[in-house]
Amino acid sequence: MPNPEHTVWIDTDLGFDDLAAVLTVQHATGFAIDGMSLVAGNAPLDVVVDNALRSAACFDWHFPLHAGRAAPLFGELVTAQNILGADAMASAGRSLPLRHSTLATVDAVAAFASYLAARVQPATVLALGPLTNIAVALQQRPHLAQRVGRLVWMGGSAGPGNHTAAAEFNAAVDPEAINIVLAAGVPLQMIGLDACRQVRVHAADAKALRELGGHKAELLADLLLGYVRIASSDGSLPMSLYDPTAAAALVAPESITYRAAHVVAECRGEHTRGMTVVEWRVPRRAVANVLVASQVDEACVRRVVLDALAAAARAG
Questions:
Q1: Is residue 172 in a domain?
Q2: Tens digits of residue pLDDT in 208-240
Q3: CATH number of the domain that 216 lies in?
């Protein structure tokens, strides 16, 4: 895309909803992706890298891919493979083609830091997994926090969790990373679990993709149907749309209403580790440090995301 109005760096633990989010940005008018850093989360890093390289070859990604952190800052990695499958790409049939693109580097932290340092204007970052890569970059080079103009993160929750009763998955994997990013003063927009659950996709959406015809349409339809079947094995129930809702918040900001709040991640609680504690009483009780998504226009987000999937299905 020549001279895009907006450029974005994406940090992701690439599973299917991450892929759908990337495609949402890729096919948004006026947007271009400058680079991608990969982080362990949905699956171990080698699986995430494999997904990214296969996705890049399939969907003609020309931006550089960088392998990042393989573990959270503290403790052992917990993945979502019990829900998403071994490859974090639950499918009703087809899988990503085996052909691969290539990695630009195996040091995503350094690549991200160099990207920020070289920017003339503050960067826009879309984070779709644990914040480990970003936190480490800001630990190593704290002055780069001022080079982030906007960090849109799918993570956390202003209500119940999904990984545990209290914690959303991305937050639970690396809560220490959240607090490092917040302490750095990065402008953070949190698209949490409670916001994403306002947007749903259905088996009928996969059927509509399939009817476009062609191998990419069949692939995306199978992946979307596999994702919907996470909610019910027969696909009869709708499935909440997570990472693509954060992508829609970026490319269609009119779809999200925010409230300012003070957020901190709980790192010590026996039953609440990974909980994003949201103090709404600002500025009376605390200083706001996050914009928290509170209301989502489901029709707008669905249109933006499903139109992008259709565009990806038709491309090349």
A1: yes
A2: 999 999 999 999 999 999 999 999 999 999 999
A3: 3.90.245.10
Alpha helices in 193-314 (DSSP H): 193-196, 203-210, 215-228, 243-251, 298-314
Burial of 76 (0-12, 13-18, 19+ CB in 10 A): exposed
Task: Supply the range of the domain harboring residue 258.
Answer: 6-314
Domain count, the chain: 1
pTM of the predicted model over 0.90: yes
β-bridge mates for residue 263, sequence order? 278
What is the CB neighbour count within 10 angstroms for residue 204?
11
- Does residue 1 form part of some domain? no
Share of the chain above pLDDT 70, in %: 99
Inside any domain, residue 44: yes
Task: Give the model's confidence band at 201: pLDDT under 50 very low, under 70 low, under 90 confident, else very high.
Answer: very high
Q: Using the 8-state DSSP alphabet, how is residue 105 labeled?
A: B
